[in-house]
Write a sequence for this structure.
């Protein structure tokens, strides 16, 4: 059986009901699913997407500027905590897949899919071994959450598998889903085919204690 978003909700509700908790580095309780895998068939698991912020984050990613002060409007606290004193972070996803600094992965994946539409090599790699030196440089706290995304042309549609190191169910999933949908649709448009489904795989999918009321 393929897990869908509704199955994910039921799993977290059950863990909360049975008080299956872990304690994170800040000392608060979390509910987690290690080795999560499901079909991302809805834009949210718990809570409603904030479209205004999603649009601002997409614009920031498209700018390829790896500084949170380039996010229009109010900068989310999570980004401020991830940044160094100058606002610099590692996780501008647009820079990671579009820039020459990281080998223009979007263009390489597009070429790969055009040349080998039945292949398995069309991967955009977000994380990197050097993150061990980069995640905390100059006061950062930004160990990139997305590991890689691989794209497949099957049944005349473009599908992808998103593989994440860590994903917060409430805020993280909604914003990351919006980004992955954006890239999938852009790539499908460049290939002149229909976008398909997203399979979401997370090493650690979790809900923080401050959001337990949404799970109830």
């Amino acid at each position: 059986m393929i897990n869908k978003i509704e199955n994910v909700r039921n799993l977290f509700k059950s863990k909360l009901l049975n008080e299956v908790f872990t304690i994170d580095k800040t000392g608060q309780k979390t509910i987690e699913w290690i080795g999560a895998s499901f079909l991302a068939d809805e834009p949210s698991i718990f809570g409603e997407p904030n479209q205004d912020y999603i649009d601002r984050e997409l614009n920031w990613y498209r700018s390829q500027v790896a500084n949170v002060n380039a996010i229009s409007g109010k900068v989310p606290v999570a980004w401020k905590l991830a940044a160094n004193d100058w606002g610099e972070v590692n996780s501008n996803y647009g820079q990671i897949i579009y820039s020459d600094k990281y080998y223009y992965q979007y263009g390489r994946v597009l070429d790969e899919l055009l040349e080998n539409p039945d292949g398995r090599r069309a991967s955009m790699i977000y994380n990197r071994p050097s993150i061990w030196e980069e995640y905390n440089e100059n006061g950062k706290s930004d160990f990139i959450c997305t590991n890689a995304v691989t794209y497949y042309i099957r049944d005349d549609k473009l599908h992808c598998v998103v593989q994440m190191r860590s994903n917060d169910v409430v805020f993280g999933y909604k914003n990351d889903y919006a980004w992955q949908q954006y890239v999938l649709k852009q790539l499908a448009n460049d290939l002149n085919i229909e976008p398909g489904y997203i399979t979401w795989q997370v090493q650690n999918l979790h809900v923080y204690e401050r959001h337990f009321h949404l799970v109830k």
About this structure: The mean pLDDT is 97. Strands lie at 22-23, 29-39, 123-125, 146-154, 157-164, 167-168, 194-208. The two ends are 25 Å apart (CA to CA). The chain is about 35% helix and 25% strand.
